[in-house]
Structures are given as C-alpha cells and as structure tokens.
Amino acid sequence: MAGHSKWANIKRQKARVDAVKGKTFTQLSLAIIVAARNGVADPAGNFQLRTAIEKAKAAGIPNENIERAIAKGAGTYADDNTQLEEIRYEGYGSGGVAILIEALTDNRNRTAADLRGAFSKNGGNLGETGCVSWMFTQKGVVTISGVVDEEKLLEAALEGGADSYEVTQDEIAEVFTDVGNLENLSQHLKNEGLIVDEVELRWLPNNTVEVSDAEQARSLLKLIDTLESLDDVQNVTANFEMVDELMALSI
Description:
Elements: H1 6-18, H2 25-38, H3 47-58, H4 63-74, E1 85-92, E2 98-105, H5 108-120, E3 125-126, E4 136-145, H6 150-159, E5 164-169, E6 172-177, H7 182-191, E7 195-205, E8 209-210, H8 214-228, E9 233-238, E10 240-241, H9 244-247
Parallel strand pairs: 8-10
Antiparallel strand pairs: 1-2, 1-3, 2-9, 4-6, 4-7, 5-6
GO biological process, one term: regulation of DNA-templated transcription
Family: Belongs to the TACO1 family.
InterPro entries: Integrase-like_N (IPR017856), TACO1_YebC-like_2nd/3rd_dom (IPR048300), TACO1_YebC_N (IPR049083), Transcrip_reg_TACO1-like (IPR002876), Transcrip_reg_TACO1-like_dom3 (IPR026564), YebC-like (IPR029072)
C-alpha cells in the first residue's frame, strides 16, 4: 500500500515555505452554502456539510457566520436570492503544465474573466472543458496526525477500505480511498483511535511533470497563488512537482 499523491507533496513543500494560504471566510462560507443545498441542512445527515463546517471552524469562522451560511443553503435566510454553481475549469500553466480549478460562483462570466486574466498574466491559458481533466483522478483523502505506529495505520486503513496511504512528514499521514468510501474510511479511522485532522475530496494527477527551470517554477507558483486568491476558487490542482529550492521562489 504505497502513497501516490505527488501534488500533495507540492502543497506540503509550499506550506513549509509560505505557510499555505488558508481559505478566506468567503470561500469557506460558500462551501457550506453549496453543501447545505446539495443535501439536508443538518450536518448530522450530510457528510459534505459536516466536513465544510469543520473546515470553517478550524479557520476561526464564528458560529453565527456558519449558521447564516447553512440557512442560505437551506433557503431559509431572508433576502437571499443568490444562486451558486459548482464549476470545474481547466487550463495550462507555463510549459504546458495541466491545472484543474474547482469554483463556486454566482456569476459564470465574472469567474471565467477572473481566471482568464490570472492565466494570461502568468504565462498560461484557460482551456476548454475536458482539456486536462482526463489527466486527473478524484479521490477521498483523510489526513491523520500523531502517527507513531505505522503498522496500526496500515491495518486500520486496509480495514477501512483505503487504496493507499502516505506518511508525509513526522507523525502525519494521508490515507486515500474511492470517493464513495470517504465517510466510511474517516469514521473507521476515528473508531480505531487515530486522529483525523481533515477529510476532503482531491483531484490527483495520474502522472506528473518535473519542473527544474527557475523561471518556469516562478511563473507556475505565481499562477497558483493568484488562482487560489480568487474568492470564487475553492481548490487548485496541478500536475507538476519541483524541489524545495524552487518552491522557495514563491516567497
């Protein structure tokens, strides 16, 4: 059972350099709204909503903001007619690197224009639907901390139906599974006494491109930063990898 998330490696490397930009209150609130609209407004019966709420609380969003977002999603919040859509955009960065963007928006034209501008200013271009998505596979990912017994992790992961796991740094691991098994795996790992820090769906590249040129690295990192800073953008995934020295260029 071997790990296979090279983009996760990139995100961790980048985190060590610039502390990873957290999601804004707006982005996290939008995720709650959509989750509540896609299912019941009760987190006990809606895994997507429960996960979105946990992320919001971890980011320090006040409970009243969370409750307001749930009400908007449920359609019970007065004077709110916002219609949000979940859209996946695709494009290319410098050197033809594939980039996948998940967005939540109430205005497709605005979001597309913002993304197109971000790509064009940073050596890339926004592509057509389907141009790079075939290079990625969506998986469920459970992040665990306090891993001191890898054999226990392996056994629990196998029993929970995981595909693989990867110890990413000291006492931290990521466990991968099919999307439909994510809730079951997360609960099983918790029941086995493991510390579950985060549960998410993530697009993983099937193959990666090694970036070794400093200018290309700088351009790609600036593009990723710009895309992640847009309020409509929820997640950005790319299929490149690079050494820590090049990651430092994002500073």
